[in-house]
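hey team, just a heads up i'm posting the complex here instead of the shared drive bc the drive is being weird again. everything in one block, sequence lines first with there labels, then the predicted structure for the whole assembly after. its two chains so it's a bit long, scroll down
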Amino acid sequence: MDSVIKVGIVGYGNLGKGVEAALLNQPDMELVAVFTRRDPNLINLENSSAIVEHYNRVEKYIGIIDTMILCGGSMTDLPEQGPYLAQMFNTVDSFDTHARIPEYFSALDKAAKKARKTSIISVGWDPGLFSLNRMMTEAILPEGETYTFWGKGVSQGHSDAIRRVKGVKAGVQYTIPIEDAIESVRRGENPKLSTREKHYRQCFVVAQEGADLNEIEQEIKKMPNYFADYDTEVIFVTEDELRTNHNKIPHGGFVIRSGRTKQNNHIIEYSLKLESNPEFTASVLVAYARAVYRLYQQGQYGAKTIFDVPPAYLSNLSDEDLRARLL
Amino acid sequence: MDSVIKVGIVGYGNLGKGVEAALLNQPDMELVAVFTRRDPNLINLENSSAIVEHYNRVEKYIGIIDTMILCGGSMTDLPEQGPYLAQMFNTVDSFDTHARIPEYFSALDKAAKKARKTSIISVGWDPGLFSLNRMMTEAILPEGETYTFWGKGVSQGHSDAIRRVKGVKAGVQYTIPIEDAIESVRRGENPKLSTREKHYRQCFVVAQEGADLNEIEQEIKKMPNYFADYDTEVIFVTEDELRTNHNKIPHGGFVIRSGRTKQNNHIIEYSLKLESNPEFTASVLVAYARAVYRLYQQGQYGAKTIFDVPPAYLSNLSDEDLRARLL
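-- predicted structure starts here --
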């Protein structure tokens, strides 16, 4: 319906590659350029013939790129890149440092409003689709409890933590929701669940030669914040086994609202089972890259979240088609 | 945050009673009046001290009621009441005759635009929340298949059909999704499923004294449109059993998107398990009654669907609170 939306990607890691692939499924969007802080000559795009540019040439694309999809990390990349890029482009990102969302929102809101552009922050599945379900189900069933379970999936932060333990060569950590807890929630029992009762942690660890396995196991299990509050399983594997059996980045989870009206209980469950966390997150970003451009076209400038976006803006179908085909 | 939203209910059947109950959980909304085509003196409200008025006095409430929640049936009530009331009030309804949605939308759009009011049509869970999930997941994962399963739940239309069979005194029909089909979809097998492979139908029937049970069973099972394309089970029960064990109106179902990105599969599943179909539908209507008033306040006149509504409008929390608490 609209003309083609011209898209840029900032950052070409797993997420950026996922965005590149997801754009292939969206006929109304075109990848113009990928921006990197590495040497652009050393990067070969996997799925497109877009230009690879150094990040410090991004300003040359003002007026050329309609929406910039930010694929950097929330720790250090986005807090600096988000407010900078929002001065020049419509942006969409997956900022997920929960405690800093108000501050990040405010920085992008200021930059985008001044530039008369639009930015959607914290898009993905959590924050993102899970947030949307938490919000909508609480509005619909105000009396009740909401439960979020994550997994089974790879936690990058916990995998990194394992790899910092002395004697560990490599490791992957899976967060696994506890089935009994989910079943109790599904039965409408509204249980009070401790951290340990909701998830357990499974670590596949490659030890360095001669390392004390028992010492590694104890150090992981006792690690505060990361593992001490959970039942944690440590499984030693060879480097080959890790490479062969644990080379994917699956994830997923469940948002369950257990609510009540008068004398009746209702369960609303939203669940994701993702073979690739970055590829799925990228697909969500791409749909919201379309939406941010629509908001911008309507003059809705400033920072937005998934809560502010009319769902129809995610689709390239006309309103008539949406009503006829999907309502 | 806003002042109290003044609400009216048109129609006081199961859905209207559900709306009345749901409003008790929404501190920013107040029930002003219930409109009925029966004698208002014969109606005692179950959960409020609102006024009961005859439907033909509705025009007296122009300027008093902010949002009218239409709780009539889609067959004959809404096609007449919707366009009439949209000339005077913001409205929200659960119109669910799929084939007539374009025509109904158009009638309300015309009436509401002329009156500078806003109407949201076809809100509930299907059409409604299920539509929203079909639409959003298709936009996010364009490559894939969407499956909708309904039940286990009571189908009013099929229960009515049973009761029209000669020799039947009373009956309740449950639509039951076939577990094997759901499991195949969840495994990402993208099966092609016939009508018979997706759902089966279970009928609890009270026969009139002296009726031929075998004849009743055959007539139900062979009924075109309703039962012939399904595996159907007919179970004869006493009137007491029907009253005791089948007096609730549960429903629910599943929307599953099985999609693909590059080399990876993803499953998005949305499911509802509702002890009372009308009470839950009413809760959705009430949240969208808040949203329609927000759209109206912004000057977004005309007919809308669930696809057009920014999710934040469903909640009585401020944008800041939503971001801090639920994102």
